Amino acid sequence: WQWWPQAGAESEDALTITEFGMLIEDSGLIGKTSADIEDELTLKETRQAFAAAQGEEEGGGSGGLKHNQQMDFPEFIEAIARLGCLKWENGPLPVLKKIEGACLAVCNAVPRANRK
Fold this sequence. Notes:
two-stranded antiparallel ribbon, 4 helices
């Protein structure tokens, strides 16, 4: 979580939607990765997973979603799980394998600044 470079980040313990999108792009999850199965993931779906992981506001009464621009660690984990299910939504993989695949991709992401 905190290993990800966050140039200009406002907080060390949160990711912005831009940072989250860069991480997902660097993980290789964006786009189609296999010709054999339908596994395309878009930036729009990535933004939607970020927003959906924000959850409902506590004590908000309106029942609406929070419109936070940053996510904390539990929200990050939820967003990665959501992306795994979106990436391979039409595939034969069990949900656990979809989430595991997304987690592995994120854990093995190489930041752009570190690429040679």
